[in-house]
């Protein structure tokens, strides 16, 4: 019997970061490259059942973008410090510790370590591994002591050789879009609390501070719309709370060359994070009455009736 190892080098990253080398973020072209690899894996039925990544920002983000493009949640990615700036021996030890029942394993890390590992394992002598490049190796069933030349390189996939656009809504669809399919389904919350004068709505500024909005984001594969919206509320508004099971409604808007559908939920705010713990505190936030939010504050006009319906339901409770 044999097993497969997928070796993925991180996508293109910024040249430097104030936080040091490990904090260097992946660039937008790097993200797209990782997502193209994810779609390629999905289309070829090569979904890994175990994923290990370096914790460096450019590597873990590459892993997340790749996994989500396959339609999977990113929670199962195992981060291993040894994948950052390590040698062939340590990488072989990481593989030896992979669960035996994992038949296809994705390893996400850095050169030159990954290139040396590929050269060690491949009976053909290995190959260059470009940024966001994916090597697919066939290996023996036993990974406890992977010797030189024990494997066979089956494919080497480069993002630049793959289509720039992404199939929608499924991997074999003819329609192509600017972003992976999951980008076009989103969720948002209308955060509220009950003040001395009645219900209040929390609004935040958009990332460029041009409009007032509510927390909204892409619905993560493998998760619920409520969980995705709660995550955005934590990051964008610095709040925690209870998201309703039932949607207040949805609206459609144009982005990334097509239409996005956003599902909206009510969120009872139970905690407001202090400024120092709020990830996107540059946005600014303010509590307003439902009338102010519906009439003037919010950029998306479709939210107005939802705010009014929420206020009515709270008044009747």
Task: Write structural notes for this entry.
This protein has two domains: 2-164, Rossmann fold (3-Layer(aba) Sandwich), CATH 3.40.50.1240; 181-316, Alpha-Beta Complex (Nucleoside Triphosphate Pyrophosphohydrolase), CATH 3.90.79. The longest helix is centred in the first third of the chain and has 16 residues, at 28-43. The protein contains seven helices and 15 strands. The model has no long low-confidence stretch (mean pLDDT 94). The protein has helices at residues 28-43, 57-69, 88-96, 113-121, 225-237, 290-297, 303-316, and strands at residues 2-9, 50-53, 78-79, 104-109, 134-140, 152-157, 166-168, 175-177, 185-195, 198-205, 212-213, 216-218, 239-255, 258-272, 285-288. β10 and β11 (212-213) form a beta hairpin. α1 packs across α2 (57-69). The strands form three sheets. Strands 9, 10, 11, 12, 13, 14 and 15 form a seven-stranded mixed beta sheet that branches. The protein has a six-stranded mixed beta sheet with strand order 3-2-4-1-5-6. Helices cover 26% and strands 31% of the residues. It is α/β, with parallel strands linked by helices.
In short:
It contains 7 helices and 15 strands.
List the helices and strands and how they pair.
Layout: E1 2-9, H1 28-43, E2 50-53, H2 57-69, E3 78-79, H3 88-96, E4 104-109, H4 113-121, E5 134-140, E6 152-157, E7 166-168, E8 175-177, E9 185-195, E10 198-205, E11 212-213, E12 216-218, H5 225-237, E13 239-255, E14 258-272, E15 285-288, H6 290-297, H7 303-316
Parallel strand pairs: 1-4, 2-3, 2-4, 9-14
Antiparallel strand pairs: 1-5, 5-6, 7-8, 9-10, 9-12, 10-11, 10-15, 13-14
